[in-house]
Write a structure and sequence with these properties.
Number of helices: 2
CATH class: Mainly Beta
Number of domains: 1
Distance between the termini: 38 Å
Strand order of the largest sheet: 1-4-5-7-8-10-11-12-13-14
Strand content: over 45%
């Protein structure tokens, strides 16, 4: 079942990438609003570190293990352009569930009572971001080889909010008694950042994006930062394929403990512009 699910997910992602996504910004009338919507697959690994009064512990879960335990995942990015203004939404949803681990345990003063016990780990996570940007420059690319080739270098600043919500849950059953351990943790981080785009050719562009946030305001993260590097190819007037790498680091205090969570890995995306 796991191999079938992985094959279907990767097959759909590659098929979408080869048949869909945004028209280059040079091809559009900047006075008219334009919109881009895209789906992507982020092959992230999960690295976490917990600092307590008793010491610290670090764990790393590679993407292959996350994929083995994946129930559902959905990732969507949308952008609206209004001359120099932009509005960007980015949403990710993961539902992970491990296999059930079973063991026979012995109870009683002499250990002569055998009871079947099982445990299963689940994780549901949302990451939703909305930000608004303003273009601060749109210049001729300094590396243009032909005058009038219209290659551009663009940059914008943005600010917004990132909502994170996760529920790690452990389902434990001993005999006929079942217990679920885990609660939702949700918070919002304000973020500020910048996006840069470099036209490398008529159809290929390099994008770099980064932001910082949290700042330990209220219930927000103590500090968070995110970075995306992408290489996009405009395969038609309305379709673009992008490959890149995304890194998200969130440090937050939970009670007396400090938790540092890193999600990082390559992604493939496809966008359609209208």
């Amino acid at each position: 079942m796991g191999d079938t699910r992985r094959s279907i997910a990767l097959g759909l992602a590659l098929a979408a990438a080869l048949t869909a996504a945004p028209r280059d910004s040079r091809a559009a009338d900047s006075d008219k609003p334009s919109y881009e919507v895209g789906l992507y697959v982020w092959g992230n690994s999960l690295v976490s570190e917990i600092d307590t009064d008793e010491g610290s512990a670090t764990s790393r879960i590679p993407f292959s293990d996350l994929l083995d335990n994946l129930n559902v995942a959905a990732m969507l990015r949308a952008r609206a352009n209004f001359d120099k203004l932009s509005l960007v939404f980015d949403g990710e949803y993961f539902d992970l569930e491990s296999d059930t681990h079973r063991q026979t345990i012995r109870l009683g003063p002499q250990g002569n009572l055998e009871v079947e016990a099982s445990a299963k780990v689940k994780l549901v996570q949302y990451i939703l971001e909305l930000n608004a940007g303003y273009q601060i420059f749109d210049l001729d690319a300094p590396y243009s080889l032909v005058r009038g080739d219209e290659l551009r270098t663009r940059g914008e600043l943005y600010a917004g909010a990132r909502y994170l919500s996760m529920k790690p849950e452990v389902e434990v059953q001993v005999g006929a008694q079942r217990t679920d351990i885990g609660n939702w943790e949700s918070w919002v981080d304000g973020v500020v950042g910048a996006r840069l785009a470099f036209d490398l050719s008529e159809n290929v562009a390099l994008g770099v994006q980064g932001d910082v946030g949290g700042f330990d305001i209220g219930q927000s993260s103590k500090f968070a930062w995110m970075q995306i590097t992408s290489l996009s190819w405009r395969c038609s007037d309305s379709m673009t394929l992008a490959l890149g790498y995304k890194f998200l680091d969130v440090k937050r205090e939970v009670g007396d403990n400090t938790i540092d969570i890193q999600l990082r890995g390559p992604f493939i995306a496809t966008f359609v512009r209208f």
